[in-house]
Amino acid sequence: MGPEELVQVTPRGLYCAAGDFYIDPWQPVARAVITHAHGDHLRGGSREYYLAAAGAGLARLRLPTDASLHRLEYGQQVSLGDTDVSLHPAGHILGSSQIRVERRGHVWVVSGDYKRDPDPTCAPFETLPCDVFISEATFALPAYRWTDTRTVAREILAWWQENRSRGLASVLFAYALGKAQRVLAELAPLTNDSVFVHGAVAGLTEVYRAQGIPMLNTLPATVASAVNYAGALILAPPSAAGSPWMRRFGNHRTGFCSGWMRIRGDRRRRGYDRGFVLSDHADWPSLLQTCHESGAKRILLTHGFTDALCRYLREQGVDAAALRTEYGAEE
Amino acid sequence: MRRFSKLFESLDTTTSTLAKIDAMRAYFETAEPADAAWAVYVMIGRRARRIVGPALLRRWLLEEAHLPEWLIDETYASVGDLAETIALLVPNDLGDSGADLSLNDWFTLRIQPLARQDETEKRRLIVGWWHRLPYRECFLVNKLLTGSLRVGVSRSLVTRALAESLGQPRAQIERSLIGDWQPGAEFWGQLIRNEANLHVAHPYPFYLASPLEGEPEGLGERAAWLAEWKWDGIRGQIVRRGDRCVLWSRGEEIITDRFPEVVDAAAGLPDGTVLDGEILAGSGEHVLPFSQLQQRTGRRKLSPKILKENPAQFIAYDLLEFGGQDWRARPLRERRGRLERLLDTRARVLRLSPVASAGSWEELAVARNLARAKGVEGLMLKSWTSPYGAGRQRGAWWKWKVNPFVVDAVLLYAAPGHGRRSNLYTDYTFGVWCDAELIPIAKAYSGLTDEEIRRLDAWIRRHTKEKFGTVRSVEPTHLFELAFEGIASSSRHKSGVALRFPRILRWRTDKPVAEANTLADLRQLLTEQHSHAAQ
């Protein structure tokens, strides 16, 4: 491996030897630069964490209290070892970053998870010219193309209203961090109703509110027999599906917000009544667009349908390769 | 099409039975009669003759999607459905959708006329629809073109919705929907006026047995039950009325021309007789394996030679109509009594189903254990007092099958599944030892729980040895117990054997792969089975 290999995969995670830091390591390390606060990217046990100031509140909730955090503004450069490192918006969730590493005029960018669709809960993706681009590939098949978010938000509202007209509760499953808040923000211009939220969603939503992001009012989805859930919308993490926690809602319909809902078989298998195609990852056209716009001569892929995107890029004449990482494909 | 598409969406976006019935009722009560008839036709799983096959559609998709072939294959493997893959990959980029055309018009003005077009014209029309229809309508039209649309409702659910909507008993609706009918306004009118079943040769809905769980002692007195052999053939109904004699399959197809000797024999029955029974290969007592029947069903033309070399017979076990009267409500004892005066167990072509006469449940269990040697699947137990029902109604008819064969085999290959198993590796190939090598012996798709499927899928992705297109080979690591109903020698398989109806019984995490069965074990089974059949 030549000296130009700024970032490489090691047993502990993506490692930059010139700067002596890891990016989203899956084992404890001395110095970790973090793209975002989802569990497969931010793990406890490391000594020092570098992350975007906008995401620090979320990281605080998820890390031990004694973890040492370095908050960086987007675009702010810090010197780590022999490298200059800066964080730039990835558009994935609040505080999500791409990590730009520069050494002697040579630039590598690690995307983390990202999307190009507008999202009122986080800063929009920033295109970064670079020599080597390390991209995610969660939805790297041409079947995955997202519908306009506004349209999906109106579908959610229509579903909620239809269930309400039948006296049913609407339980909408969404990732507790990021997706749930995006749904609350996307619905805000469309209605003034309150939404009940699962405990796992409530605390994270408060962090978003503290950043001044307009979202629908939320109420805890308590067992209290005083609450009548008929006609209500409830936001919950997918792990709550089928659990005893659901009993409190009486007659209800279930929905799931995820890019995986693009495929009918996927939705039917998971047994939700309704699937809403709403993803915090880049779809196929966005992945191609982003790889192209980066101007990178070399593209490395971390997780998802890496083989398909890798082969496609190679056939387009791009030097591409897949890396073996431990990032997940849950959404 | 929009209304039907909305109905499809309602059915596809709920898991609640009541919500599905509501959606169908709302559609039946407001749709144009012709559209309603077509919707019923499609929802109960009827399919018109296929106008265009999947190979052609796939080729046109390649030409229209502007993506490399391997990427389309990869996407199709992941989506698990060709109609959906087309709807996802072909851009909806030409205006004027055609989604406003009614369902009836789609069939009669667009899809059916395709049959008269040559391939170039078919391509031009179909590809034009792909580019003009919105996603869901595009998916639906592709499904209608290729013949099968599973909308998440069973036939009985459609019957229930129709019964509620039209205010008729379900059995009446069942009868109306059976047989050979042409969808359209005329049929819908007949359905509403209860005239749809008056066709002279219409069959009755088949009554289906349920598998017996537990021991037969739970059924009470042995004397209250008729025990017959469970034959491995094609379920059929002979309808002999007026000057016609028609043989129906359980799939509600007329198969009269497949089995001329059966129909000839049945022509001698009195006018107004309907028999339920099983079509078997072989003549008289000499029953041949099920595979012999395929010589009859698989061919377009039956030569005199084939008819002679592959004789068929009909074993009758019930009498549904006699003297032009519907006998189904009468108790089995009376129907069987009449049938015994009509037919004989010793006939060569049209035979009475023989009774397994063991006097006690214990003796019957012994008889059942000989079933495999006799070439049957087990026993049927029918209450002497039971009427002839419709569909699968539990309680009066039970099938008491012999236990299946089992083999411990090793997972060798996996391919992505279809439908609700899209995006998961669920189509498995298993092998057994032959010297130091594992030889593939069977493919199986069913038997694991969802949780096991997920675990195995994740494992397969991480332990892929090689990829052949969308198929992956894996390290021989996991052992599975497979069940199967029979074994035959086969020159088309490398192993030299073919298993009948293999499925996964359980994941043997307790056993190493070294303890999988061997090909010699299976060959042994093959010889045993043959020596039994020869006796």
Distance N terminus to C terminus of chain A? 34 Å
Which runs of chain A of at least 5 residues are low in confidence (pLDDT < 50)? none
Low-confidence residue ranges of chain B: none
- Mean pLDDT figure of chain B: 89
Helix content of chain A: 10-25%
Mean pLDDT of chain A: 94
Radius of gyration of chain B: 26 Å
Number of β-strand runs of chain B: 22
Major β-sheet annotation of chain A: 7 strands, mixed
Main beta-sheet strand count, sense and barrel state of chain B: 7 strands, mixed
Protein structure class of chain A: alpha/beta
Distance between the termini of chain B: 60 Å
Strand-residue proportion of chain B:
15-25%
User: What level of helicity do the residues of chain B show?
Assistant: 25-40%
Sum up the overall morphology of chain B in one term. globular
**Shape annotation of chain A:** globular
Rg over CA atoms of chain A:
20 Å
How many separate helices of chain B?
Answer: 20
- Looking across the biggest beta sheet of chain A, what order are the strands in? 7-8-9-10-11-18-19
